[in-house]
Amino acid sequence: MVWHAPTPTATETMVIGPRITVHPGVLSGELTVPGDKSVGHRALILGALVGHPVHVTNVPRSADVAATARALRTLGAEITLDEAGTGLDGQVTGPLREASDVLGCGNSGTALRLLSGVVAGIDGMAVLSGDDSLRRRPVDRVAVPLRAMGAEVLARSDRFPPLVVRGGGLVGTSYDSPVASAQVKSCVLIAGLAAEGTTVVRSPAPSRDHTERMLAHLGVAVSTSVTDVEEVSVAAGPLRAAPLVVPGDLSSAAFWWVGAAIAGTSVTVSEVGVNPRRVGVLRALEEMGATVSVRARREVSGESTADVTVTGRALARAEIRGQATVDAIDELPVLALAGAMSEDGLEVRDAAELRVKESDRIDALAAAFRNLGLDLQARPDGFRVPGGQRPRGGIVDAAGDHRIAMTAAIAGTVATDPVTVVGADVIATSYPTFLEDLRALGGRVQVQETGR
Predict the structure, then answer these.
(1) Residues in contact with 382: Cβ distance below 8 Å, sequence separation at least 6, in sequence order
(2) Do the bridges between strand 19-23 and strand 444-448 make them parallel or antiparallel, or are there none, so unpaired?
(3) Catalytic residues
(4) What pLDDT digit, counting tens, does each position of 312-353 carry?
(5) Which helix (H) or strand (E) holds 192?
(6) Which candidate, 308, 297, 300, 299, places its Cα nearest to that of 33?
C-alpha cells in the first residue's frame, strides 16, 4: 500500500473539522500517543539515504510527515506504509536522484530544512516550497552553511521560500550556527554525509539530537562534545540498513500531562520518547509541583522510551530560560496554561524562536489567552503569565498553528464554560487522532465538519 494522505478511515478516527467545541471535563487515564513527528521525518529521510530497503515502524500519520514522504517520492524513493496501530509500518528504499518536480513541504519547517540538506548532496536542481505559512518562515539559516559547502542556494528576498538548491560537489565545512536549532544542525549534518571531508556544526547550546542518534544507529561515526558550545561532527560515508522504530511523541503527550497537572488528576502515556533534550516539559511540571513518574525505560533505534505518569497537585511558580527553554520549546504554549492556573505564574525567557514557528506563537498565544479571559504579557523573547487564573469560555482562532489549537482545547477542559476553536483542522498537521484521545481520557468535544 502506498500511503499518500495522513487521514485514516472514518471508522478509525474522528474527523477534525474547522471548528470544535470543548466542554469542561476531567482528563485522566492511560493512552499511547502517535509516533514522534521529529523522529518520523528523520526515519523516512535517513532511511531513504541508506540505498537499501529499510523497515520503519510507528511512523506518525501527520500531515507534516506525509509531506516529507511525498517529497522523498519526488526524489525517487519508494515508500510503502500500511496502517498499524497508532501509526504506519512499512519500508523506505533509496537511492535518491534529482527531483522530478517541486518538493512541496506543506506546513512543515522540519521537512523543508532537512530536505534542503538532502538535495544539496544530490547532483542536480531542486525547488522546495510549501503553504502560505511556511513561505513566511526564514531559510537563511540553512542557506548560509549550504553555500559554504559548495551548493548554489537561492531564496525569495534571500530569506524566504521557495528555496532553490543546485547540489553536488560538496566539501565539508565548519559552521558556527547563531542559534541552537536542531533543524539547522540536522540540515548541515545530512549534507555532510555527501561532502568530501568532515563537517562540523557548532551551536551556542545543545539542541535535539534525534539526527545524531539515528545516524549512529545506522552506522555513521558521529562525534559530539558539549563545553561552552555544542560541537557535532560527521564524515561522509555509507549508512547501513537497520530497522527504525519511532517512539511515541512527547510533544503530543505534553497536552495530556498538562491537562492532568491543572486538573489534579493523573494521566499515563506509554512508550513515549524521553530523549534527554526533549523532556523540558516534565522538568517544568516537576518544578511547579506536579508529580512525574517514569517507568519501564528502554532503547529503540537509539532513542529512549518510557511509560510516564503525571499527577497534578497545587502548582507553584516556575521560570523557564536558557537551556530549559530549548528543551521545552514546542511545549511552552501549553505550559503557559499551567502557569496561568498555578499559584504564582510562569515566566519564559530566551524563546524568540517562538516568533518564527507556524505562527508568531507568542502573539498568537497572547490573543488566544485574551479571548479566554487570561492575562499573558508578551515579551520579545518570551512571556509572563500571572498565576491564580482560570480560563472562561470563549472562541479562539488557531491562527494556523496546531499547538495553539490544542492548547485552547486543553483550556476548554478546565474552563468555566465551553471553548470553541476555529481553524482546528490544523491539528492534523501533527496529531490527527487528538480528538479520539481527548475523548478516551474523558474529554467532551463537539465537531463541526464544515464552515468556519
Answers:
(1) 321, 325, 347, 348, 349, 350, 351, 352, 354, 362
(2) antiparallel
(3) 330
(4) 999 999 999 999 999 999 999 999 999 999 999 999 999 999
(5) helix 182-192
(6) 308
